[in-house]
């Protein structure tokens, strides 16, 4: 028996409402003007249409293709290549748990496993209230502060199972949460517009700082000819007396955890819309 399924061909994607399209076209012209070749604007334009609906829809890809003079196949090839472009509706807050090697052994795997149970969702799935989408993500280049959780690409460092559960509970309840470093938190749609290259108008967002930890900066200091510190101290033991040996595991979640390659029941990867 053949696996080929016969049926009606898929209809073209619908267009945006006239007022939405007019607004997006004005934004698109501003983005395209930054580049000598218009097709170079595809990545920020995908962020732009993602800021409209919270994910990249067939309508959004049609819009990008039309304003850039590309085919929808060319746009789809890019939209499905990068994981930052969502292909299905997702939450106001993308909660990503780093499960790469260091974060995993420092507790990231345990955090991810517990959050799935606590929220009742799998990898890449969204809570029923539409607030939180949970996913395991690759290295965030913040190993000094492992295990790290990111919310809409803002850092929440040195997490534990309990602090991560409290974080998602606060997000779902609408309570204010403050990232460990960087700008104040905003919704995923707002984040997508900033990534499209439009100004971040939130008070204090541009001035907000945050840097790498001591271990990451040692190499930079050596390259500059500066003397390296005698001992790099974990952020969790920075206040420990210098004449005392640090504990084997400064806190309970530092102990190596059982790791897994991924969530076998909800594998990561691009998700196509029905009919694609």
UniProtKB/TrEMBL annotation:
Signal peptide: none annotated. It comes from the Bacteria. Residues 226-276 are annotated as: Disordered. It catalyses: a quinone + NADH + 5 H(+)(in) = a quinol + NAD(+) + 4 H(+)(out). InterPro entries: NuoE-like, NuoE_dom, NuoE_N, Thioredoxin-like_sf. Keywords: 2Fe-2S, Iron, Iron-sulfur, Metal-binding, NAD, Translocase. NCBIfam families: nuoE_fam, PRK07539.1-1. NDH-1 shuttles electrons from NADH, via FMN and iron-sulfur (Fe-S) centers, to quinones in the respiratory chain. The immediate electron acceptor for the enzyme in this species is believed to be menaquinone. Couples the redox reaction to proton translocation (for every two electrons transferred, four hydrogen ions are translocated across the cytoplasmic membrane), and thus conserves the redox energy in a proton gradient. This is NADH-quinone oxidoreductase subunit E. The lineage of its organism: Bacteria, Bacillati, Actinomycetota, Actinomycetes, Kitasatosporales.
């Amino acid at each position: 028996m053949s696996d080929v399924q016969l049926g009606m061909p898929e209809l073209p994607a619908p267009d945006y409402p006239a007022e939405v399209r007019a607004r997006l076209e004005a934004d698109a012209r501003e983005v395209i003007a930054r580049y000598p070749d218009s097709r170079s604007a595809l990545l920020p334009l995908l962020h732009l249409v993602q800021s409209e609906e919270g994910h990249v829809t067939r309508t959004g890809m049609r819009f990008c293709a039309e304003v850039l003079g590309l085919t929808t196949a060319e746009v789809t090839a890019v939209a499905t290549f990068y994981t930052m472009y969502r292909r299905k509706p997702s939450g106001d807050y993308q909660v990503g748990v780093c499960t790469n090697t260091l974060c995993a052994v420092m507790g990231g795997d345990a955090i991810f496993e517990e959050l799935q149970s606590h929220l009742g969702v799998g990898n890449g799935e969204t809570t029923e209230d539409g607030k939180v989408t949970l996913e395991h993500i690759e290295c965030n280049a913040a190993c000094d502060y492992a295990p790290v959780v990111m919310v809409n690409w803002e850092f929440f460092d040195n997490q534990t199972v309990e602090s991560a559960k409290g974080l998602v509970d606060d997000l779902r309840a609408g309570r204010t949460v403050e990232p460990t470093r960087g700008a104040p938190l905003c919704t995923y749609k707002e984040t997508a517009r900033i990534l499209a290259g439009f100004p971040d108008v939130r008070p204090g967002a541009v001035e907000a700082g945050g840097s790498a930890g001591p271990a990451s900066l040692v190499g930079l200091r050596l390259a500059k000819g500066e003397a390296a510190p005698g001992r790099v101290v974990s952020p969790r033991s920075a206040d420990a007396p210098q004449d005392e040996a640090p504990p084997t595991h400064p806190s309970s979640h530092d102990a190596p955890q059982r790791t897994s390659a991924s969530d076998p029941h909800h594998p990561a990867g691009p998700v196509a819309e029905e009919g694609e």
